[in-house]
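Subject: Interface between my chains keeps coming out wrong

I've been trying for a while to get a sensible model of this assembly. When I model each chain on its own everything looks fine, but I need the whole thing in one frame so I can look at the contacts. Pasting all components below, labels as-is. Any help appreciated, I'm running out of ideas.
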Amino acid sequence: MDALLNLGMGFQHALTPEALLICLFGVTLGTFVGVLPGIGALTTISLCLPLTFHLDPLLGMIMLAGIFYGGQYGSSITSILLNVAGSAPSAVTCLDGYQMTRQGRAGVALFVTTIASFIGGSFAIVLMIFFAPVLADVAVSFSAADYFSIMLLALVTASTLAVGSPLKGLCMVVLGLILGLVGTDINSGQFRYTFGIATLADGISLVALAMGLFGVGEILTNLVSGVLPQLENTRVTLRSMIPSRLDMKQFWMSCTRGTLLGSFVGMLPGTGPTIASFMAYALEKKIAKDPSRFGHGAIEGVTAPEAANNASVQAAFIPTMTLGIPGDAIMAVMIGGLLIHGITPGPQLINENPELFWGVVASFWIGNIMLLVLNLPLIGVWVKILSIPYKLLFPAVLLLISIGVYSVNNSSFDVLLTFVFGMFGFWFNRHGFPSAPLLLGFVLGPMLEENFRRALLLAEGNLGTFIEHRVSFAFLVITLLVMLAAVMTSKIFAFGNSKMESA
Amino acid sequence: MQMRTQNNNFISQGLDNWTRGLQATALLLALLLTACGGQEAATTGTATEAATSGSDYPTRPIRVIVPFGPGGLADVTVRIAGEELNKSLGQPVIIENRPGAGGVAATSAMLNADADGYTLIVLTNGTTIAETQFTDLPYDITTDVRPVSALAWFDLVLMTNPESGLTSLQALLDYARSNPNGLRIATINPGSTQQLSAELFKSKAGINATVISYRSTPDVLGALIRKEVDLVIDAYTGLKGAIDGGQALPIAVTGAVRNPAMPDVPTVAEAGVPDYVVTGWNAIYARSGTPDDIVAKLNKALTEVTDLPEIQAMFLELGVEARASTPQEMQERFLADIFKWREVMKNANLAGQ
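Reply #2:
Try treating it as a single job with all components included. I did that and got this:
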């Protein structure tokens, strides 16, 4: 009941005209930059951070948070309509979302995405209201060994992201791991594969990689193949947006799984929405009765990742606001916004600044409802993008990608890198190498290695540490089961085939 | 009635911020165009203006490049000081973040601009470490820039988990000496002031310790909370919340004198490890060749700004001391720190690249 009373107080602070206006501004801006490929929440929040220095801390947080979760709503739109990732977490939404568009189901895809995003976000907010301190304690108790085993499971499922040849998928995972090695080794400080290029000392930019593979590469493929994605009928009626009964059944289950997974991943400090959405997709495909539907417009391939990344960004506030330990890079920037007001997030924040904590939580609800109201009627407008002639659309998208990538680090080298990856992406597309496993390998690889070595350093080189930690042990067992299952099913599959042939 | 005035203030301030935000966006776009369009064009285009003498300086906005992302200590201190500089110099001070690569990206950007005092850079004690860490830098930091003034000084804090029972530096040292595996110290990434301070602590205290690297200050704090490590060495700013909230117990500070924010916490030297002192700093630098009178004007303005009581108070809140210096003092400090950290890296076997 205390939580509800506090929440009531939060609403008092979040329902003032200024707070409502600034929340609307935040989520609208977030949606907008989310739609623009490359320009993501991190860039926008960094740019808007100075604006908050003179605002009331609560208003500043409401705005920045609105940009953050608003961006997750927006970024799936570009993925679904153009097969160009709006941001890294939405890259995986391209796989089935774009196929739905090609089947003339863009309206349905956007509709379920918006609803799934809302559900994912709302669930994580409920968690935050009732269980924030407990969950934060649990999340922070995860040690390096635990992280290693969780990442290992994610990596093992990564190869299922492949459409077509599993071998090619595995190749791409490994390539992603190798690309992830580039940069400064966190344990020794040594540079690896930087080739004397100072910018590479920080590693390859995730945005550059994602935009190259899932943006420039796609555009090149379209241009060379000559089959331009022009849709005849771009009129979206309310009727065309309504999912079929079969869709709805698949929707609820995948949305629930995505939400739970996203909330879990989001709470773990150091992860982020990209891991959440990719893992959600992999999970859906893994447990689907007919995995071959994925990559050909399966609705779960859209709802699960979108529910997961929205749940994840909302859940990332749990450790940030209750322990002062940010869930990801964007949260860290937001903490900077509070620092300038002399507020340091920590365990005392809830007690010392209750109006700030509960006001922000209340604004999450308001913001998510605003996004729902904002996005549903806009679907018809977004789909109109498809009626723009491709010869006008693609230069505009390329320009936006360049600006977006540049703005992350103010680095023209990153723009160059994007186009190099774009050419690789084009080559991958032509030869049936899936890009999604590469991206996940790239994100997970460095975390896997870093935590493995840290765990061993902490345990004085004793490998038993991975079994001694309970969480780690549990995840290792699950990983083993997943691998066994994969081997078993492929054997049964091969056996079945040979029987058919002999018959 | 009072409520209403506040609201009006809020709106006018908001508008003010808006214009500034727009300016920043315009600058960003302009920068993008110059970066893509070729840097020669940009340099020759403004070369004519560089000849203007310092007497009417500044006549246009001043750009300060910060080699870190927004929200960090360096960024926040420069932004606060920038507001005041804006008032005293009569021109906007625009902060531009160019994070990463040990400051190489930021320094290169700065060296592409003219030596006219309109493009400045924030260097930190981290720059003096990068000097040894990066062996083939595309510039020579000791001659390509000239100091204007120091801005902020800060110490690091040694912290333990309050439940560990290691409530004093002496208890920590005893524990380290009695434990066969020594001490586990968590710091942020290799090549940081924090990590080298830990290495320096290890050698000055003569103890056996493993320094474990984490990606960020919150990660370091997490490690301390779950008792993965015995000691954390990091700046006060990022861990103020943890200290106030009882997650971390400060047992000593690394400065030459006690930290005014925590007057009860002794310095490391007082508590039993003599001649161990680490003080970090942020300072404003200009390109070499910037006219003396411009540097003098900026130095005077910065000295006035850092002396302002409200700046003193705001910096103290962040756990740092606002204090300017003469260019000469800064130069000496810079060279001394390069030497100091080079020795630490050599002793700790941390190779340069």
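Reply #3:
Confirming on my end. Residues 58-154+280-346 of chain B form a domain with the D-Maltodextrin-Binding Protein; domain 2 fold (CATH 3.40.190.150).
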